[in-house]
C-alpha cells in the first residue's frame, strides 16, 4: 500500500504543474461552454479525495489528538477558507492563468503571509503528524513547496487567451 499511497499523495502536483505551465491547453480542452476554473476545481476536488484516501490508508488514528493538533488545524484551515473567501473559485483555481481578470487582494492573510493557502495546507498536514507516517507528510509538503516555486515564476506572456 505504501507506493500506491505515495502516488496518491503526489497525484495533484503534475496536474497543477501542467495547468500552470500550459494554461492555454486547459482552456482549449474546456471549450467555450465550460469555465476552466470551475472544471479545474471539480477535477481538483476529485484528486483531493484520492489524496485523502491515500493518506487515510496509511494512517493510524487515535483519540484525542495531541494538543498541537488544534492550533495547527484551526489556523491552517482558517487560512485556506480565508483565501477562498477573498479570491473565490476563479482566483483560487488559476483564473488569472486562464485569462480572467482577478482583482488584487491585500486583506489578511495576503501581504502578511506569503502563499497563505499553501502555508495553511502545510499546517493542516503537520497537525496530522501523530497519525500519518512522516514520509507521506513530507512528500505532500514537498509537492506544495514545488508548486510555490513554480507559481512564483509566473510569466504574464504565458497566460491563456480566454475563449469568447
Automatic annotation (TrEMBL):
Q: Which domain of life is it from?
A: Eukaryota
A single Gene Ontology MF term assigned here is: phosphatidyl-N-methylethanolamine N-methyltransferase activity
Q: Membrane-spanning regions, if any?
A: 42-63, 131-150
Keywords, comma-separated and alphabetical:
Endoplasmic reticulum, Lipid biosynthesis, Lipid metabolism, Membrane, Methyltransferase, Phospholipid biosynthesis, Phospholipid metabolism, S-adenosyl-L-methionine, Transferase, Transmembrane, Transmembrane helix
EC assignment: 2.1.1.71
Q: Name one GO biological process term.
A: methylation
Q: Which GO terms describe its cellular component?
A: endoplasmic reticulum membrane
User: Pathway it acts in?
Assistant: Phospholipid metabolism; phosphatidylcholine biosynthesis; Lipid metabolism
Where in the cell does this protein reside? Answer: Endoplasmic reticulum membrane
Bilayer topology term: Multi-pass membrane protein
Reaction(s) catalysed by this chain, per the record, are: a 1,2-diacyl-sn-glycero-3-phospho-N,N-dimethylethanolamine + S-adenosyl-L-methionine = a 1,2-diacyl-sn-glycero-3-phosphocholine + S-adenosyl-L-homocysteine + H(+); a 1,2-diacyl-sn-glycero-3-phospho-N-methylethanolamine + S-adenosyl-L-methionine = a 1,2-diacyl-sn-glycero-3-phospho-N,N-dimethylethanolamine + S-adenosyl-L-homocysteine + H(+)
Quote any Pfam family the record assigns: PEMT
Q: Which residues lie on this side of the membrane: Lumenal?
A: 1-2
Q: Which residues lie on this side of the membrane: Cytoplasmic?
A: 153-164
Q: Which residues bind S-adenosyl-L-methionine?
A: 74-76, 154-155
Family per similarity comment: Belongs to the class VI-like SAM-binding methyltransferase superfamily. PEMT/PEM2 methyltransferase family.
What is the documented function of this protein? Catalyzes the second two steps of the methylation pathway of phosphatidylcholine biosynthesis, the SAM-dependent methylation of phosphatidylmonomethylethanolamine (PMME) to phosphatidyldimethylethanolamine (PDME) and of PDME to phosphatidylcholine (PC).
The record's listing under HAMAP family reads: PLMT
Q: By what name is this protein known?
A: Phosphatidyl-N-methylethanolamine N-methyltransferase
Q: Which gene encodes it?
A: LOC115707928
Amino acid at each position: 500500500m505504501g507506493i500506491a499511497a505515495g502516488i496518491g499523495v503526489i497525484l495533484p502536483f503534475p496536474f497543477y504543474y501542467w495547468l500552470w505551465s500550459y494554461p492555454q491547453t486547459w482552456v482549449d480542452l474546456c471549450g467555450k461552454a465550460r469555465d476552466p476554473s470551475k472544471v479545474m476545481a471539480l477535477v481538483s476536488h476529485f484528486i483531493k479525495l484520492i489524496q485523502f484516501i491515500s493518506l487515510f490508508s496509511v494512517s493510524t488514528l487515535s483519540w484525542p489528538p495531541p494538543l498541537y493538533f488544534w492550533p495547527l488545524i484551526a489556523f491552517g484551515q482558517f487560512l485556506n477558507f480565508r483565501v477562498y473567501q477573498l479570491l473565490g473559485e476563479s482566483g483560487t483555481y488559476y483564473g488569472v492563468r486562464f485569462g480572467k481578470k482577478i482583482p488584487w487582494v491585500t486583506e489578511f492573510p495576503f501581504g502578511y503571509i506569503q502563499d497563505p493557502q499553501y502555508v495553511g495546507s502545510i499546517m493542516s498536514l503537520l497537525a496530522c503528524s501523530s497519525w500519518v507516517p512522516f514520509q507521506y507528510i513530507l512528500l505532500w509538503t514537498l509537492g506544495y513547496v514545488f508548486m510555490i516555486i513554480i507559481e512564483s515564476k509566473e510569466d504574464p506572456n504565458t497566460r491563456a487567451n480566454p475563449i469568447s
